[in-house]
Design goal:
This protein has 10 helices and 15 strands. It has about 325 residues and is an alpha/beta fold. It has an 8-stranded mixed sheet, with helices on both faces. It has a 3-stranded mixed sheet with strand order 3-4-5. The longest helix is centred in the N-terminal third of the chain and has 17 residues.
Length: about 325
């Protein structure tokens, strides 16, 4: 049995272990985040930050820590939680509200709604970022009337987000050749999602991150669950019964992934006939109510079909649809 080593003694004993990537000691890189001792089980509990986790580098550090704690200091056991440096320093660890804009199928206007909600929040004075996670059908840059350009990086290799209408933005559209499709499989999708959250220099004081999700359920939905488990979701549908049927599935998937559903937005709800001022139900009716009822949430808004006055796709506060987006932004501001 060993003598009673203090946490200070343990820190002193392990301080010269080196992070294999940076070749800096754990003390130099301030990587020892927690040291505790369970006296009943005679176990040391550690939280250590490494540049990279999950590979050979982590295994090497784990062996070195185990040798010192168990062999040199004589403890019975060791429990180690490794955390990755880029994750600890990323936007996911900041006080940001993550809002997922989801749909069951494409063509319901999900990306336009995501962009307009973000823009309405910006008009309220909030600092907003947009992640265009719709990898295969990215359209946020076009909605914001942005020219194709490749993102820049800082000296450390971190990605600098682009800016449009006062919002920060990242999209796969900027990483692909203009006009060319993206043909990726699961591992590459996961890597890109991680990059968007962990390797982009988002402003530290962002209030909201709006995430334009791909339609349906798949790899990216699972990735987002792991990356931002506390995100909340808005489901987008149209009034058509077929669209609402698929939207319900997307909502159930979101619930299964433990994302709180804020509510449902019914897009393309009606068209105001300029001749007689009547509502024309071009795509049917009732879809939004059905989705909200089945998902046990509320119908947040019914957005009509119309063209913006000032921009190609964005509505301002002096337009009727702009006022709807202002109301949605207010709701998100007070939704905790």
């Amino acid at each position: 049995m060993h003598r009673n080593y203090s946490t200070k003694d343990i820190r002193e004993a392990i301080k010269n272990i080196v992070d294999p990537i940076t070749e800096k000691s754990l003390v130099e890189s301030n990587a020892i985040k927690h040291i505790g001792v369970d006296p009943d089980k005679d176990v040391v509990v550690l939280i250590v930050v490494l540049t990279k986790i999950g590979g050979e580098e982590e295994k090497l550090v784990k062996r070195q820590l185990a040798k010192i704690i168990k062999l040199d200091l004589g403890f019975t056991g060791i429990k180690i939680q490794f955390e990755e440096k880029r994750v600890i320093e990323s936007i996911v660890k900041k006080n940001v509200k993550f809002i997922l804009i989801e749909s069951g199928k494409g063509g319901v206007g999900k990306s336009t709604i995501a962009a307009n909600i973000a823009y309405a929040l910006t008009r309220m004075g909030k600092k907003v970022g947009i992640i265009d996670a719709d990898i295969y059908g990215s359209s946020i840059p076009q909605i914001l009337e942005m020219e194709h350009t490749y993102p820049l990086a800082d000296e450390s290799g971190k990605i600098i987000p682009l800016f449009a209408y006062g919002m920060e933005l990242i999209s796969t559209e900027f990483f692909a050749e203009a006009g060319k499709p993206i043909i990726w499989r699961g591992a590459m999708l996961n890597s890109m999602m991680n990059n968007f959250f962990y390797d982009v220099i988002w402003s530290k004081d962002l209030d909201f991150m709006i995430i334009d999700c791909p339609p349906g359920t798949g790899d990216i939905a699972l990735d987002l669950r792991n990356i931002v488990p506390n995100a909340k979701a808005i489901i987008v549908t149209t009034p058509h019964k077929a669209a609402s049927h698929v939207a319900i599935k997307a909502g159930y998937a979101s619930k299964q992934l433990k994302h709180e559903i804020i509510g449902v937005i019914e897009n393309m709800s009606y068209y105001i006939n300029p001749v007689n001022g009547q509502k024309e139900l071009i795509f049917g009716s009732g879809g939004g109510e059905i989705v909200a009822e089945r998902l046990e949430t509320e119908l947040l808004a019914q957005i009509p079909i119309n063209q913006p006055i000032h921009h190609q796709n964005l509505f301002e506060s002096d337009e009727e649809i702009g006022k709807i987006y202002d109301d949605l932004a207010t709701l998100l501001t007070y939704n905790d």
